[in-house]
UniProtKB/TrEMBL annotation:
The lineage of its organism: Eukaryota, Sar, Stramenopiles, Ochrophyta, Bacillariophyta. Its main location: mitochondrion. InterPro entries: COQ9_HTH, Ubiq_biosynth_COQ9. This is Ubiquinone biosynthesis protein. It comes from the Eukaryota. One of its GO terms (cellular component) is mitochondrial inner membrane.
Length: 256
């Protein structure tokens, strides 16, 4: 199948899958996000957006339900930004991209995705978002958004169109590496140096190199199926993120 057709199909499929927001919701969500560092993932952030923007109606606040709408929109938006960045690399820098190893491409993709979260990580707000995303009522949606990101990265970073796509076990393990790197950033108490030092990026790179070695030496793999991918993605999010929530909020995450 021709590369350009594959990329257009991927972009169209994942866009439909991620974005289910109406235009008024998008306008309000984009206006509310700059207020999250001050107010958290709360309805207060939405109210602050309306109060500071004459084009937004007070009645519009009912279109967004904090906290999860704010968090879910962030994940969708970041996934779409990452997809566009990777497509630009594949289409406009094909020669350079083809010279990179699979581990190098994955390093670029995952570090790019993590850096999109910089504002909320440095404001000490993203650990709250991760804890909310682990709640039972949200964990399935959170896992789907993580799965979408991993599928996009795997599709656009895979080294050869003529080889089999990465299977469920390989995608699951990459998702685990990404979340581990995310937790690494969240656990760094020095908010000013989270993105300046090399500790997290070295950790991410070493994990990806190890993953690539195991991938090339492993004989057995999980069968490829949508159900398997969905199951392992859900397990990944619920186990890792719930563990983070229990550590940071031992008495229970306050509900807004």
């Amino acid at each position: 199948m021709h590369r350009s057709f594959v990329l257009r199909t991927l972009l169209s499929r994942n866009s439909r899958r991620c974005f289910s927001w109406s235009a008024p919701q998008v306008q309000l969500l984009r206006a509310a996000l700059p207020h999250v560092p001050a107010y958290g993932w709360t309805q207060d952030a939405v109210a602050a957006a309306v109060a500071s923007n004459a084009r937004l109606s007070v009645a519009a606040t009912g279109l967004v339900q904090a906290p999860y709408d704010l968090i879910a929109f962030c994940m969708d938006d970041w996934n779409d930004q990452l997809r566009q960045i990777l497509l630009e690399r594949v289409n406009n820098h094909a020669d350079e991209w083809s010279q990179l190893s699979l581990a190098d491409r994955l390093q670029f993709a995952f570090s790019t995705r993590l850096k999109l979260q910089q504002e909320f990580l440095q404001a000490n707000r993203w650990h709250e978002a991760m804890a909310v995303g682990a709640r039972p009522e949200y964990v399935v949606t959170t896992s789907e958004k993580l799965q979408t990101m991993v599928e996009t990265v795997c599709s656009l970073c895979h080294e050869d169109d003529n080889t089999a796509s990465l299977n469920a076990l390989e995608q699951f393990s990459l998702g685990a590496i990404y979340v581990a790197a995310e937790l690494h950033l969240v656990s760094n108490n020095d908010t000013m140096t989270r993105f300046e030092d090399d500790e997290t990026w070295n950790f991410l790179r070493q994990q990806l190199i190890h993953w690539d070695r195991l991938r090339n030496t492993t004989v057995t793999a999980l069968p490829e199926s949508t159900a398997t991918v969905a199951y392992v993605s859900s397990t990944l999010v619920s186990s890792l993120t719930s563990g983070l929530a229990s550590l940071m909020f031992p008495s229970g995450m306050p509900r807004k």
